[in-house]
Design a protein that fits this description.
The complex is a heterodimer of chains A (459) and B (255).
Chain A: H1 3-8, H2 25-52, H3 60-79, H4 87-105, H5 112-130, H6 138-147, H7 150-171, H8 176-187, H9 189-215, H10 220-235, H11 238-255, H12 269-295, H13 298-306, H14 311-345, H15 357-366, H16 372-401, H17 451-454
Chain B: E1 10-19, E2 22-32, E3 37-42, H1 48-55, E4 63-68, E5 71-74, H2 80-90, E6 93-96, H3 108-119, H4 124-137, H5 153-165, E7 171-175, H6 183-199, E8 204-207, H7 211-217, E9 220-225, E10 228-233, H8 235-240, H9 245-254
Parallel strand pairs in B: 3-8, 3-9, 6-7, 7-8
Antiparallel strand pairs in B: 1-2, 1-4, 4-5, 9-10
Helix pairs in contact in B: 3-4, 3-5, 4-5, 5-6
The chains are: A mainly alpha (459), B alpha/beta (255).
Chain lengths: 459, 255
């Protein structure tokens, strides 16, 4: 949501009308309550660490007190939404009290807890004091909230999560020096992962296309072969298939030695990995492609037939371009899953252990067993970045393909352009990848309550 | 296979069509000569759409014979040669559907060019002026670069007519072309069809309930009832000198 979208949505019910101008202090109060709530959440997220820590057992009473601090912060944040101005004092007391306690006891694991709590509480207290005139004015706060775009709020939530996780990890004595030393080495495995995934994706897509055409064919050979293919590769575990291809096929090759085809079926780990992943995911994608092709209305095929097209022409020119729209989102999910499953290929053999990302992570911590958290976090983060980049481009591709299905013009701009899917044309929009990359959802239809909901008339 | 311009463009002989045990067409004979406009009407379920779809083999006739522009095919099982001939036959018969069935991923112009480019293997540059001309003819030159979703139903149907015309067919088959349209959009489509008949002298077989259009444009009308042509003749014959009681009942109901 930008100024452009706001201008477009002049009659947007989500935005408060201009004559309802809330006092500016309401905004401070609102943000103050968010900061206080974040502090409470941080404390509660950190609580399990205190409970399960084995280094220095912490007395249960202290742990309980720490939990109370978190709850006090959350309650304090909630009290600001009460329609009485005196609750503001309780919220302020909660903010100050929480930090004061942690500073007084010097933190349960380290004094840094007190410092962090003081920073949070300090900011919250300042915002609360700035927002004092609006205390108890719930309507003003909901108006202030409605003026903050949904997209911005979601971004703030993401930032808060990362921030909480970051502090959480910082407090658990993460060895950043070790991470810095090994990051380059582990990230070097990305090259192999990307190469493996790309090759397997190409193979899987080709197999899925022909598999799907086979499943829809009246030719008994095509139908039977594709049926066998999907049944076997969906019905057995990927790891078993990988071992079969890499470890068991050479045995078959040896058996055929008398036919002098030695080494015929001995594959490199890379080739075995591509074949295993490609065939396995191709089998799943066969069903996706089949469903996509079937989703194209029968009238389209008839129109193509009526023009005199033959089967390949009809598929290539009419059916597949339309099926693609439906196929892309679930296929993206498969690709993401496949990228992550490249880690399994590392199990195939020693030659790989020096190249594959996950194997490199394991090698890194095998030198220093106390650094498992660091290396595995790095590995997870690298996979996550990789799939996020992929999801980003997938979302762009989906937007491009929605051309011809949207009445509004679709631009390449990455802003929150509204996309209207027409009934019947919608193909299950969201990719639902690991990371939420902007999807063109109409803002008004999200769970975010419009301001009108919180605006009960004041008695 | 010699075929003269004077021969009927469409010739249907003893056409039978079963859907399972249900006999939808029970022996149809129909000749359509060049330049003739034949309107087929009747209750829903009487088999009129099925006849139209049998003419270009979107439905396989169970029995009988179809000839379009000199390409004669028997009903029944599709052999390899027959499949080839069906495709040949279809390039001579343009079809307009009730639901338009435009290709949504292409612009109006691309829709019109699709047949000649893909089926007739013509160069896009060669066909483009002709396709534009067709869009002008149906009054949609300004919509050439729009996708179908941004066109009204009436506009979509006119693009669909242009798409069928682009194949330069010998006969146009219209399967209830205005039934899916809002009332105010029907006129623009009927006007285009009228101009096809009067300006281009296009041979047309039209399944429709638009009796005004039939009275004005049709050379011949066929009343379908329970899988047979119960009565046929000029519009004047059918409207003013109805012979069959069923026909009269139907016309009284729709007029």
């Amino acid at each position: 949501m930008s100024a452009e979208a706001q201008a477009a949505g002049a009659g947007d019910v989500r935005l408060p009308p201009a004559h309802l101008q809330e006092p500016p202090s309401a905004k401070y109060l609102l943000i103050g309550s968010w900061v206080l709530a974040t502090e409470g959440a941080l404390a509660l997220v950190f609580l399990p660490v205190l409970v399960f820590t084995t280094r220095t057992p912490i007395p249960p009473a202290d742990i309980a007190a720490f939990g109370v601090v978190g709850i006090v912060c959350l309650v304090g944040a909630g009290l600001l939404y009460v329609r009485r101005s005196w609750t503001w004092w309780l919220a302020l007391a909660a903010a100050i009290g929480a930090a004061a306690y942690l500073v007084a006891v010097g933190g349960l694991t380290s004094s840094r807890e007190g410092v962090i709590a003081s920073v949070f509480s300090g900011i919250a207290a300042i915002l609360l004091i700035l927002g004092r005139p609006a205390a108890g004015d719930v309507d003003a706060m909901s108006l202030a909230s409605a003026r903050i775009p949904f997209r911005l709020k979601v971004t703030l939530v993401w930032l808060a999560i990362f921030f909480i996780l970051g502090i959480f990890l910082a407090l658990s004595d993460l060895d950043f020096g070790f991470i810095r030393e090994n990051l380059r080495y582990i990230a070097g495995g990305l090259k192999y992962t990307i190469l493996l995934a790309a090759a397997a994706i190409i193979l899987a897509t080709i197999l899925a296309l022909f598999g799907a055409l086979g499943r829809l064919s009246k030719n008994p050979v095509a139908y039977g072969v594709s049926g066998f293919y999907t049944s076997f590769f969906r019905g057995t575990p990927l790891i078993v298939q990988l071992f079969l291809i890499y470890l068991a096929l050479p045995q078959l090759g040896t058996n055929m030695e008398r036919l002098s085809v030695t080494k015929f079926l001995t594959l490199s780990t890379f080739v075995a990995g591509v074949i295993g992943l490609g065939f396995n995911y191709g089998a799943y994608m066969t069903e996706i492609f089949r469903a996509g092709i079937q989703s194209v209305s029968h009238g389209q095929a008839e129109a193509a037939d009526a023009l005199g097209m033959n089967y390949p022409q009809r598929m290539r020119r009419v059916v597949l371009p339309q099926a693609t729209r439906v196929i892309i989102p679930p296929t993206g999910n498969e690709f993401i899953a496949m990228m992550k499953d490249t880690a399994l290929v590392g199990l195939l053999g020693v030659t790989l252990s020096k190249t594959e990302l996950f194997m490199r992570a394991q090698l890194a911590f095998s030198q220093n067993l106390t650094k498992r958290l660091e290396t595995l976090l790095v590995a997870a983060a690298l996979y996550w970045v990789l799939t996020s980049i992929f999801t980003f481009f997938q979302a762009r591709l989906e937007r491009r393909l929605s051309k011809g299905y949207t009445r509004t013009s679709v631009t390449g701009a990455f802003g929150g352009r509204r996309t209207q899917y027409l009934p019947g044309a919608a193909g299950g929009g969201q990719g639902g990848g690991a990371m939420m990359v902007e999807m063109p959802l109409p803002d008004g239809e999200r769970g975010e309550a419009p301001s009108s909901e919180r605006q009960e008339p004041v008695p | 296979m010699s075929w003269n311009a004077g021969d009927p463009v469409v010739r249907v002989r003893n056409l039978h069509k079963y859907f399972g045990p249900l006999e939808v067409l029970r022996g149809i004979d129909l000749d359509v000569t060049r330049g003739e406009v034949v309107v087929i009407f009747g209750r829903s379920g009487s088999g009129k759409s099925t006849l139209l779809r049998c003419i270009n083999f979107l439905e396989d006739p169970t029995e009988g014979e179809i000839e379009v522009a000199g390409i004669r095919l028997e009903g029944g099982h599709r052999t390899r040669t027959k499949r080839e001939n069906i495709r040949r036959l279809r390039t001579h018969a343009g079809m307009v559907f009730q639901q338009f069935n435009l290709f949504p991923h292409m612009t109006a112009l691309q829709n019109v060019m699709e047949g000649p480019v893909t089926v007739k293997k013509m160069k896009a540059e060669t066909i483009k002026p002709m396709a534009m001309e067709l869009l002008v003819k149906v009054g949609l030159a300004d919509k050439a670069d729009e996708h179908p979703i941004r066109l009204s139903g009436g506009q979509q149907q006119r693009v669909a007519i242009a798409r069928a015309l682009a194949m330069e067919p010998d006969v146009m088959l219209f399967d209830e072309p205005t039934s899916a349209l809002d009332p105010e959009l029907i006129g623009e489509v009927l006007n285009v069809m009228k101009s096809l008949a009067t300006d281009l002298h296009m041979t047309m077989v039209v399944v429709t309930h638009e009796m005004g259009f039939a009275r004005e444009v049709a050379n011949r009308m066929c009343f379908f009832h329970e899988g047979v042509i119960l009565e046929e003749g000029s519009p004047d014959d059918l409207f003013n000198h109805t012979r069959n009681a069923e026909t009269k009942k139907f016309l009284d109901a729709v007029l």
